[in-house]
Write a structure and sequence with these properties.
Blueprint lengths: L5 E4 L6 H10 L4 E3 L21 H4 L4 E3 L10 H4 L4 E6 L2 H12 L9 H10 L7 H19 L4 E5 L4 H12 L25
Parallel strand pairs: 1-3, 1-4, 2-3, 4-5
């Protein structure tokens, strides 16, 4: 029986969307790139425990992608029994993938994604390699320090399907499904559509 909240911790282009699909295959109701501000009363509300709207957040029992990093410090207070899955990727490959993925026009000024990117990468159009690597190192220091005393497992993009399934399923105490681990990383332009709470 699924009980604990699962949080995926990782930057864009580290397999966060594939992890989201994998968790859904395993029976979780997983949300990729959540609209975090809604769970705290709106875009202009402070992201504090006091402002947290649990009923909205509990619509899902797993969350993946970068917005989770923006509330990483209060997660233990919100969900003390949560489990964490850290997604990683070789840094040079990751930077090149980001440049290809983010290349093009900036997101609209009013879009919440613009603010998220600026908080994570220092710009809403993160296509400069040195800036990306600096942001990568900063956030993985934060993540590694955070999970040091937590219940977590690390999944690397380069690992094969069987290794990923074995790690995740053992960690979550569930059976390995009879299907390949999802590989959802096609770079294509599409409308950003965060899950709703």
């Amino acid at each position: 029986m699924i009980q604990r909240m699962i949080f995926g911790l990782g930057l864009s282009r580290t397999g966060t969307k594939s992890l989201n699909s994998a968790l859904n295959i395993l029976g979780y109701n997983s949300c990729h790139h959540p609209a975090i501000s809604r769970a705290f009363g709106g875009r202009h509300s402070k992201k504090t425990v006091k402002n947290f709207k649990r009923k909205l957040f509990d619509k899902y029992n797993a969350y993946t992608d970068t917005p989770i990093l923006l509330i990483i410090n209060i997660l233990p207070k919100l969900y003390p029994d949560a489990k964490y899955i850290v997604t990683t990727r070789e840094i040079e490959q990751w930077a090149e993938s980001c440049i290809n993925f983010f290349g093009g026009k900036p997101v609209p000024r009013s879009h919440g994604l613009r603010k998220t990117r600026k908080l994570l990468y220092g710009t809403d159009l993160p296509i400069k390699k040195m800036l990306l690597i600096k942001s990568h190192n900063k956030w993985y220091r934060v993540i590694n320090k955070f999970v040091k005393d937590k219940n977590y497992v690390t999944i690397d993009c380069s690992e094969n399907s069987d290794v990923k399934w074995d790690k995740i399923c053992k960690f979550l105490s569930v059976d390995v499904p009879d299907c390949p681990y999802p590989h959802v990383n096609k770079i294509r332009k599409k409308k950003h559509n965060p899950c709703h709470m």
